[in-house]
């Protein structure tokens, strides 16, 4: 594993981190959940990413990881970076989502109970709340650290301007913002185009980018139809109509470039997000152990040549 420094902090994160958004809910096989985390850790993936609402049902992924911590990682708490977040809908009524201090602290206490932990390593505001003063949200993150509930804080899905403002507020409070978690992959490049990566670099933060495989679209998963055990079949966050002929034409060209590099498309997609110095870690998801092994093996490939990068750009812009 390669460990990258997260911005201008003291914290090193693995170049590949594992997220528990999918495949860790109440209906998922406990043996597979445990196998995914154990194999990831054995391959040097020290960072596991959660949120209050991961499941289904919401909260069940944290409960599952709490059991894994107890049963599989008991001796390893100090080898692990565990994150959680609050921002999206978690419970009914006016205090169960967005960015108030009330919600952020109550949700963190619930997360800690589900995880069976006294503190998490990173606590995030999961989304920017345009209706709550940013000072209130950032003060809640600062309080999470000062009260011993979290070691570091971060923001996720924040636009560039709010990223600058959040970083300044947190710096003034004495709890620097460690990290930003935006979505970024070859098909979804907003952080590059809308100034988020520039803001992250300017503020001395690191970026951990989620869905580097575009939920599996940037792999061979859908090349021959939609498998019955795939995320597109579940149809909740990835719809089957996203597997379009246009997309498949594009991914076939990308697969050709990857093959010439000696990689699978999934491996090239992971390596591609990591080409930017601002990206500390690629935050993958997995339903099978082999998917984690494939992603980690991507790190052994050589850096991109200028002509490979140009060929990728041409494919992305021309189809
Ligand atoms: N901050 C936020 O708002 C936010 C939002 C979304 C996600 N996240 C975080 O980011 C993490 C990763 O997101 P993601 O799951 O969308 O990431 P992803 O890596 O883009 O997609 C993972 C999915 O791709 C498929 N896949 C993975 N490796 C493969 C391979 N080698 N070959 C073929 N298919 C492969 C699998 O789909 P199948 O299940 O079909 O096998 C897997 O579940 C989440 O768990 C969460 O921690 C954060």
Total count of strands: 10
Name the shape in a single word. Answer: globular
Order of helices and strands: EEEHEHEHEHEHEHHEHHHEHH
CATH structural fold name: TIM Barrel
Supply the CATH class.
Alpha Beta
Number of domains: 1
The percent of residues in helical segments reads: 40-55%
Beta-strand proportion: 15-25%
User: How many individual helices?
Assistant: 12
The name of the CATH architecture is Alpha-Beta Barrel
Q: What is the rounded distance between the termini? A: 34 Å
Bound molecules: NADP nicotinamide-adenine-dinucleotide phosphate
Describe the biggest sheet?
8 strands, parallel, barrel
CATH homology superfamily name = NADP-dependent oxidoreductase domain
Derived structural class: alpha/beta
Radius of gyration: 19 Å
Mean pLDDT: 97
| Low-pLDDT windows of residues | none
Q: Which characteristics define this entry?
A:
alpha/beta; 10 strands; 12 helices; 319 residues; 15% strand; two-stranded antiparallel ribbon; TIM Barrel; binds NADP nicotinamide-adenine-dinucleotide phosphate
Task: Explain what this protein looks like in three dimensions.
By secondary structure, the chain is of the alpha/beta class. 40% of the residues lie in helices and 15% in strands. The protein contains 12 helices and 10 strands. The chain has an 8-stranded parallel β-barrel with strand order 3-4-5-6-7-8-9-10, surrounded by 6 helices. A two-stranded antiparallel ribbon has the order 1-2. NADP nicotinamide-adenine-dinucleotide phosphate binds next to strand 10 and helix 11.
């Amino acid at each position: 594993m390669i460990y990258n420094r997260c911005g201008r902090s003291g914290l090193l994160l693995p170049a590949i981190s594992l997220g528990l958004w999918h495949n860790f809910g109440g209906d998922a096989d406990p043996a597979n959940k445990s196998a995914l985390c154990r194999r990831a850790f054995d391959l040097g993936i020290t960072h596991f990413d959660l949120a209050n609402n991961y499941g289904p049902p919401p909260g069940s992924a944290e409960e599952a990881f709490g059991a894994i911590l107890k049963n599989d990682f008991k001796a390893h708490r100090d080898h692990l970076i565990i994150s959680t977040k609050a921002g999206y809908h978690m419970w009914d009524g006016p205090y169960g989502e967005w960015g108030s201090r009330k919600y952020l602290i109550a949700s963190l206490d619930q997360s800690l109970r589900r995880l069976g932990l006294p503190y998490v390593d990173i606590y995030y505001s999961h989304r920017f709340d345009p209706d709550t003063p940013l000072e209130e949200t950032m003060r809640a993150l600062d309080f999470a650290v000062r009260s011993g509930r979290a070691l570091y804080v971060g923001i996720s899905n924040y636009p560039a301007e709010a990223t600058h403002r959040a970083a300044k507020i947190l710096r003034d409070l004495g709890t620097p913002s460690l990290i930003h978690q935006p979505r970024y992959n070859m098909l979804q490049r907003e952080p590059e185009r809308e100034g988020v990566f520039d803001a992250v670099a300017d503020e001395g933060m690191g970026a951990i980018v989620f869905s580097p495989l575009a939920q599996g679209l940037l792999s061979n998963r859908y090349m021959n139809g939609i498998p019955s055990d795939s995320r597109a079949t579940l149809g909740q966050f990835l719809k089957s109509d996203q597997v379009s002929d246009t997309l498949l034409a594009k991914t076939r060209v990308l697969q050709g470039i990857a093959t010439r590099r000696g990689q699978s498309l999934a491996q090239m997609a992971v390596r591609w997000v990591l080409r930017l110095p601002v990206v500390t870690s690629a935050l993958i998801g997995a339903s099978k152990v082999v998917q984690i092994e494939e992603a980690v093996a991507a790190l052994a490939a050589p850096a991109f040549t200028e002509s490979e990068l140009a060929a990728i750009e041409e494919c992305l812009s021309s189809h």
